[in-house]
Amino acid sequence: MENGQYDKDWKDIHTMPEELVKELETLQPKKVLTYHNSKFTLGKHAWYEPLELIYKASQGKPYKLLTPKIGEKVQLDHEQTFSTWWRK
User: Fold this and answer.
1) Range of the domain at 39
2) CA 37 → CA 10, 14, 49, 68, distances in Å?
3) Nearest 5°: phi and psi at 26?
4) Tens of pLDDT along 7-58?
5) Is residue 59 domain-resident?
6) Cα(46)–Cα(38) distance, rounded to whole angstroms?
7) What is d(CA 39, CA 57) in angstroms, rounded to the nearest whole number?
8) Which segments of 6-48 does DSSP mark as H helices, in order?
9) How many domains in the chain?
10) Which of 3, 8, 33, 87 has the largest count of CB atoms under 10 Å?
11) What is the rounded CA–CA span in Å between residue 5 and residue 47?
């Protein structure tokens, strides 16, 4: 799911954080992997903000949020634990 490089000026072409939460509620996924965040900044938000917002919004939800570091392999068919690496 797209999660990053958003701004109110670009709301028609980029997913805003509150829209992402609504999309996840509609889709009811088992696992969520977001993209379009933490690489380079075009948006007017901090580079880590998209991950922090979806992390907080995902607490207590029925899906598992996958937050790999850039380049880290993700095993969709195995249980994997990810850290809040953007906070370090």
Assistant:
1) 8-87
2) 15, 12, 9, 11
3) -70, -45
4) 889 889 889 999 999 999 999 999 999 998 887 777 889 999 999 999 999 9
5) yes
6) 9
7) 21
8) 17-27
9) 1
10) 3
11) 8
